[in-house]
Amino acid sequence: MVTTSNSSSNGQPALRFGIIGVGNAGGGVLNMMRDEPKVEVVAAADIRPQALEAFQRDFGGRTYDSVEGICRAPDVDVVWIATPNHFHCPHTVLAAEHGKHIVLEKPMALSLDEASLMVETADKHGVKLLSGHTRAFDPPVQTMWRIIRSGEVGAIRAMNVMSFTDWMLRPRMPEEVDVERGGGVAFRQAPHQIDSLRFLGGGLIRSVRGTMGIWMEGRSGAPGYYTAYLEFEDGTPATIVYNAYGYFLANELLPWEMEAGAQAENRARVRNGINTGTWDQARAKDEMRTASMQGQRNALEGGGAPSGPPRQRFQSDLGLLLVTCERGLLRQSPNGIYVYNDDGLREEPIEVKEGGGDPTIEEAYNGIVLGEPIFHDGRWGMATLEVQLGLMRSARERREVLLEHQVPVPSDLAH
Amino acid sequence: MVTTSNSSSNGQPALRFGIIGVGNAGGGVLNMMRDEPKVEVVAAADIRPQALEAFQRDFGGRTYDSVEGICRAPDVDVVWIATPNHFHCPHTVLAAEHGKHIVLEKPMALSLDEASLMVETADKHGVKLLSGHTRAFDPPVQTMWRIIRSGEVGAIRAMNVMSFTDWMLRPRMPEEVDVERGGGVAFRQAPHQIDSLRFLGGGLIRSVRGTMGIWMEGRSGAPGYYTAYLEFEDGTPATIVYNAYGYFLANELLPWEMEAGAQAENRARVRNGINTGTWDQARAKDEMRTASMQGQRNALEGGGAPSGPPRQRFQSDLGLLLVTCERGLLRQSPNGIYVYNDDGLREEPIEVKEGGGDPTIEEAYNGIVLGEPIFHDGRWGMATLEVQLGLMRSARERREVLLEHQVPVPSDLAH
Q: What confidence category does residue B307 fall into, taking pLDDT thresholds of 50, 70 and 90?
């Protein structure tokens, strides 16, 4: 339990966050936290003075130019680590040693050794470690999970998910496209699919067989493609596909999302700029950060503002997820989830909240302030990382890789 | 070379077919042959008198109540074997021993031993064996192949294909849903996907890891689901998915094909009839056969008659095929193939012929009458069967299966 001087609207103390790394991802987090009465952002750390200035101007918290600094701040209950992936381990260890609870962005770390050290250090210092912020937390996957639990369509028998995005065409920091520093889609994007499949399928993946691909001249440092076959302990199969090169987008398969065509030419221009080195990515990234802090979407992501009431967006980094069940099938719909069952087809709507309610922040609050068990803890994150690393190993060694560090979804999990 | 008394319009002799098995598949073949001036259907064999009567009434050829009988007919150059899968081997051996050339429907056989015997027997008797009639022969896959060869989008780097059909809800003969007799989708439908991927990817698959599923009460004799990861010798990955239980159909992902909803309820009614045993399948199958001979489509397949000029239909038993290339992506479009390339998106139209031009019949004619090499020969068919059997073995043994009987696409193949 955390004791603070402030109180949130429900009478419980607000959870006081320090943000480590106020980049693009951190900017998005800050917007969510601003809308969330249960939390307060009291400080931020970054090595870039401009990022800290922008933070101070827009959010008004204290700033630190080092991780040590923010970890020593007595009014920070929990740090949100949004630094490049190769810093996740050292920053987690540092925060734990200073008694701070930790929320980690995906991927948890770059190796199982790092992940083990992080879990052990958090345990040793009695702090909570939440490894999350994947699409598994979001309403579509959560709603699918509830429908499965209801028994309406029987048990899950297979899952197939395909993501086709323009991830490689968005402005990128060097480490995002350098596999040595945890760059590329197998490190950075696979957690969305793997976490979601593990959550729906019970958590325990037995083996992985897959490969990765790099084939864009201007992005030759890290894979922009992967595909794999996963099999759960209980025999349920799953396939995952991710193509980040932005020729075709999966939402072209959803009539309510967008039309093919015009955007393909925009993407072709960007791709050409990357391959010929004529695109100022650093500047584009800065513009994206600013837009992100101001709550705008990257225009390249397509879709634009939907007309009518707010609705659940298609989750392009999860992709088109088809959950085959004993007596039906689930997939995302314009306003929620399509439930194909023995009567035909119905749509389960998802209520879209106007602000707040971010599930990772919720889980952190419930775990740290209310003392509830954390589901997406370090061991859960390590198991997802093991699948990612298993995929990379399978690609290198051209063979199936058996897994050893999987943990189940708690049987008493309530949502 | 075949010598006959009749001549086709191009001055070459017509190829004289005997059809073994005038069931549903055979009925479709007969329609194609009627429109094809290069071939002549001179005889049919079946064990069902009604089927032979219908054949005689509609096509006017001679009839036989045994395979031996039609194989002894001197004016039959080639037999088209459309019998149940567990008869493919004995009927092929019999035909070869009588010096008849052979066209086989998919799957080639039920085991590699059978396939070997068929190849050896055909070789020994100097007859040609064509193992085909999959979607790999059809214009969409052929057009993709030509685009790849043109170099416009670079080499193939990955392929992902997903078929979601109502195959299990169509009227079925007992052997079609009995795995012991080659029933279920891993035997009967997988050749469409595997043949197409092998054709596009060069032919040589190194390994397969996958599984199958059976979970519909009224169809418990054979799998209605499979999914697998395939890897080619050159490292190119592919995933295949087939769900035949008809809750969701893949063409719902193609705005120009159909709307979700209404048809899902029709399918729910049929499924309920199958599960409760209240649907007269034999009668439905007979009606389907009659409709097939009369050139009508099964209404359950959806889509209906397109408006405007004839166009290339979505190939539901191949499914949604996404061919990821070095510099682009290919997939089926309303009128041909979408080519996503470095300039954006264009559509490569496919000219739809009004009749004739069936690619399997073409290949048989060119091979048998004109003496050209047959690409889809017994060894090609055996290699595709090996992938199917490898998938089944991988499912049983829960491990990756390495393949040994793969053959390449001829490097001088012209299309």
A: very low
- Report the gap between the CA of A152 and the closest CA in chain B (Å): 14
| Higher pLDDT among residues A137 and A386, named by residue | A386
Ordered structural domains, chain B, with CATH: 15-133+357-375 (3.40.50.720), 136-353+389-402 (3.30.360.10)
Q: Length of chain B in residues, anyone? A: 415
Nearest to B160 among A227, A331, A338 (CB): A227
The answer to whether the Cβ–Cβ distance between A253 and B329 falls below 8 Å is: no
- Any idea which of A7-16, A54-63, A344-353, B318-327 has the lowest mean pLDDT? A7-16
For residue B340, the chain A residue with the least C-alpha distance is A247
Number of neighbouring beta carbons within 10 Å of residue A301: 17
Residues 347-406 of B with CB under 8 A from A: 398-400
- Cβ-Cβ contacts under 8 Å, B162 against chain A: 160, 162, 322
The radius of gyration of chain B from alpha carbons, rounded to an integer in Å, stands at 21
Round to whole Å and give the CA distance between B160 and A170: 24
CA angle B245, B250, B251 (to 5 degrees): 125
Q: In a 3-state reduction of DSSP, which class is residue A358?
A: coil
Collapsed DSSP state (helix, strand, coil) of residue B410: coil
DSSP labels, B106-143: SS--SSHHHHHHHHHHHHHHT--EEE--SGGGSHHHHH
Task: Write phi, then psi, for A261 (nearest 5 degrees).
Answer: 120, -95
Better-predicted residue by pLDDT, B47 or B415: B47
Kindly report, residue by residue over B149-161, the tens digit of the pLDDT.
999 999 999 999 9
| Tens digit of each residue's pLDDT (9 = 90 or more) over A249-265 | 998 998 777 655 557 78
Q: Cis bond leading into B107, ω under 30°?
A: yes
pLDDT recorded at residue B281: 78
Maximum Cα–Cα distance for chain A, whole Å? 60
| pLDDT score recorded for residue A232 | 98
